[in-house]
Amino acid sequence: MSAASIELRTGDTRVTRSPAAGHHAARTHPVGSPIMRHLLSVVLLCGLCLLARPASAQDAQPGEPYSPAVLRGELAHLYESLQSAHVDLFVHRTKSEYDERFNASLRAIDRPMRRLDVVRLFMPFVAYGRIGHAKIDFPIQDYIAYYQAGGTLLPLDIAFRDGRPLLAHAYVDHPALVPGREVLRINERPIADWLDRTGRFVSAERPYMVNAQLESMFPRLMWLSEGRVDPYSVTLQTEDGAQATVELQPQSVAVIEEAKAAREAEAHRRTARMLDDSTAYLRPGPFYAAGGEESLESVVAFYDTAFADFIAAGAQDLIVDLRNNPGGDNSFSDPMIAWFADRPFRFASRYVLKASPETRRVLDELATRYPDGVSAQMQAAMQAHDDGERFEFEIPKVSPRSGKRFTGRVWALINRHSYSNATTVAAIIQDNGFGTLVGEQTADLPTSYASSAQFTLPVTGLAVTYPKGYFVRPSGDTALRGVQPDIPLPPPALSQPGDGVLDALRQHIAKQAR
After folding, report:
1. Average pLDDT, stretch 192-202?
2. Against a cut of 0.70, is the pTM above it?
3. Which residues pair with 271 in a beta bridge?
4. Do the bridges between strand 436-439 and strand 409-414 make them parallel or antiparallel, or are there none, so unpaired?
5. Residue 39 pLDDT class (50, 70, 90 cuts)
6. What's the rounded Cα separation, in Å, for the pair 252 and 336?
């Protein structure tokens, strides 16, 4: 994979995006630089939808506008294709509700629109179904253009505790910007209004998932909602019950994304070490090749070396840290699980596919590229079914490693930002009794409409992601909820330094060993 492209894998489906290169007005950041790779990977990994609104004068708006007649046809094509390809478009919204939303969106096309405004109109329409894996990609090229032109953002992140939006991080210095203080208003509007506006940008089954996405994307989504704003007024609740209002100058996209990149690079770094004489720690990192010289083979080699070292060191307990893990593909995670699994396993007890022309095209292409992969098996199975028909597809089981394995106790740390395949790994560990889960509920779902694929709209070229399948976690539980920890540990206070959750788990392990 080149530095100028990002490849995401969900199941056996690959999605590649190659953004345009360019330069920031004040400094140069080539597409292959760390900040550009961060921009691309973070934004593409987030399932977002955008609120329709007129573009501001300072939004990036490349290309000629599309006529209303053309866009109405494009919207009709979008809705028809979603109904055809989506495994169950109306599972959370009735068809009459969706029809009403379609008609409202048609009425909103009352003027020529450029591509970014089309994205803002079409994304909420796709996200209306409340399925995290049904979405139109965040407009990364427009965001990069805004960044390269010296664009600015709201200089703070938020985090949710018991549903309350708190200041998580500030990108400017001010004595009132204390992490953990509740955010009450921005630009004299209640924070609830902003959460509603930005929350509609997110494809998600549950409010918990929406909030988790806002924790990662709030400044970016504020830009999408409002364009460039200068300055910002932010009101916070102080510890004594008073209110403090701060006038904030926006910060450049470069400053904010560089800071985010530094924090998230540490969270995604693959790490294996002994914490003490008997406790091993493994942070597997993303379950995909994360760039550079990485490959499936190199990641598996990392696992093999780590476990061999743990066993040689006499480790009795293993902590697998899945927190803040973006997920990926089970071909990367199965070899890790096989090191401590004591029976065959698979990520789903039930897997349902829907036959459609859109999915047939996807599977035909993938089967040609990977004739020995799962997509070729799906392609063959789909040939026996008519379009619109749903059918069961058997997921093969994965065997534990033959020979040497880790036989000590396994503890897996999870949180709301354990996404996609990280959620699935947690469910495999819990449902098969391979270990104990510690932390907080995942925002993503182990039973889900997923197995993502894409079709492309004919005029605008927008890529639409949809779930071609439905899978049920290994236990057979079909509840609409995340993976629940066996030992709940709330996230630490936002003002607390260090890793209080890991410290608490180590104390628990030490007590158990006595």
Report:
1. 92
2. yes
3. 283
4. parallel
5. low
6. 40
